Amino acid sequence: MVITTKSAAIVGLNVYSINIEIDTINSIPQVLIIGLPDTAISEAKERLRLAIKNSGYSFPSTKVVINLAPADLKKEGTNYDLAMAIGILLKEGLIKDFDFESTVFLGELSLDGSIRPINGVLPIVCDLSRLGIKKVIVPIDNLQEASFIDDIEVLGAKNLSEVVEFLNNNIELTKIKQNIETYLNQKEDFNVDFSNIKGQLAAKKALEIAAAGAHNVLMSGSAGSGKTLLAKAFVSILPPLNKLEAIELTKIYSIAGLLDRKNPLITKRPFRSPHHSSSPTGIIGGGSNPKPGDITLAHRGVLFLDEMVEFPRSTLEVLRQPLEDNVVTISRAAVSVCYPANFILIGAMNPCPCGNFGDSKKTCTCSEFQINRYRSRLSGPLLDRIDIQLRIQRLNEDELLNDNTNVESSSQIRQRVIRAREIQLERYKNEGILTNSELSPKLIKKYCKIDDDTKNFLKQAINKFNLSARSYDRLLKVSRTIADLEDKKDINITHIAQALQLRDN
Ligand SMILES: [Zn+2]
């Protein structure tokens, strides 16, 4: 008789139930695993044999055939070890009957029979209840992250014999109750607070606008002008994560294998700053066993590209799709996976190759040709996705000597950002978008209406600065955010004038 146990696979963020069918044939003792297994699964044969023996059970002295179904799904990793071992022991009559139809087993086996943690447990458990599964047994080290889900019973096991004893009704397995609110209500501590940054009032205001409307930003300024510090502080003025966002991010970090037992829930908006020498796969995601890259790990947070022009052009061009669609699609020979990638991009660059162009103290030694060539490394289509461009000036003596009292803290600025986001949320509740940065040209017409005086002012600006249709749209989006920060229903001349300061010139 064929025995069936259940496990689960994850491809991208999609979860599939895997049936593990086991039968034995009276033939030379060996294990045969079929159903498109990769090398890790083939190696599972030896792990299974030793884990079962070292747990004190006998291994079948027949030929064991294990089929992983459905066969057309490429299965990777070591998630299925536990389900296979349980199936073999069931076949051997070492386990009594149990509700195997609605129970899923997840975990990699060590040679001594202990169960090792695997990646992606939270997203798997999250989807299992939808697939009709009632109970899931996970490695004890994954129990914390898996226990955030309410509508399924999650049990943690240390080793194979614990699971067997549990299935035979001899012991109970560990169960915990996780409360998301407890984690979310913990006080957030940020590495850099805006109150730690001297001066830079214009830059701080610009970043407040960027945070309020979720606008991408490009900062240019000489080395030492404080671009990196400002970018690091930016994450502290973004609204706190809500419950759904925290779960969504935790799923991503679970798949990437970046959760630890101390922090089973991601509660802070991420700040990712890959170096320009990082591999494109590391930044975008992918690989033979696809993994999320920095742009997905920055989801709902900030992707900071320091020295942005130094990144390979190919990497920067690939960024355009996620900047437009908020997702990244990674295609490989057999499958294509989709990861979320909705982040705010903060780019930083020097103003010219020598770094001194526009500096009040130092002299630029670059020719106009060199400067233009340097800046043209960022393509027009990429710059079209950046609403705010900022020039960061070095601090003057007065600002340096200022003792930093009466400087606004991040939490004060954040209150205004939260309020502006609430206004946008309400305004766009039927439009399928959350923030001003997502406004399409059609929605800009609908929500960025201006009176005749403002229109005339804008006309003059278009002529003076030779604005393209794209930069006109960006100007209106940023103006909309400035108006929202002031809780104004209509965009006026002052808002447009402020937005004009936040563009390349
Ligand atoms: Zn220069």
What does this structure look like?
This protein has 505 residues and is an alpha/beta fold. The chain has two domains: 3-167, Ribosomal Protein S5, domain 2, CATH 3.30.230.10; 194-408, Rossmann fold. It has helices at 39-54, 81-91, 121-128, 143-146, 160-167, 180-184, 201-213, 227-234, 243-255, 280-284, 294-297, 313-318, 320-325, 368-375, 380-383, 397-401, 410-427, 441-447, 452-465, 469-485, 493-501, and strands spanning 3-11, 14-25, 30-34, 63-69, 103-105, 108-109, 115-116, 135-139, 153-157, 217-220, 271-272, 285-286, 291-292, 302-305, 327-331, 336-340, 344-349, 388-391. Helix 1 (39-54) crosses helix 2 (81-91), helix 7 runs parallel beside helix 17 (410-427) and helix 7 (201-213) crosses helix 20. The strands form six sheets. Strands 11-14-17-10-18 form a five-stranded parallel sheet. A four-stranded mixed sheet has the order 1-2-4-3. It binds zinc ion (ZN). Zinc ion binds at residues 352-354, 356-357, 364-366.
What are its keywords?
505 residues; alpha/beta; Ribosomal Protein S5, domain 2; Rossmann fold; 2 domains; five-stranded parallel β-sheet; four-stranded mixed β-sheet; elongated; binds zinc ion
Distance between the termini: 76 Å
How many structural domains does the protein architecture include? 2
Helix content: 25-40%
Q: Trace the largest sheet across and list its strands.
A: 11-14-17-10-18
Assign the CATH superfamily of the largest domain: P-loop containing nucleotide triphosphate hydrolases
Report the CATH topology name of the largest domain: Rossmann fold
Q: Report the CATH architecture of the largest domain.
A: 3-Layer(aba) Sandwich
Strand content: 15-25%
User: What number is the mean pLDDT?
Assistant: 91
- Helix count equals 21
Shape: elongated
Named once each, the bound ligands are:
zinc ion
* CATH top level label of the largest domain: Alpha Beta
Radius of gyration: 28 Å
Largest sheet: 5 strands, parallel
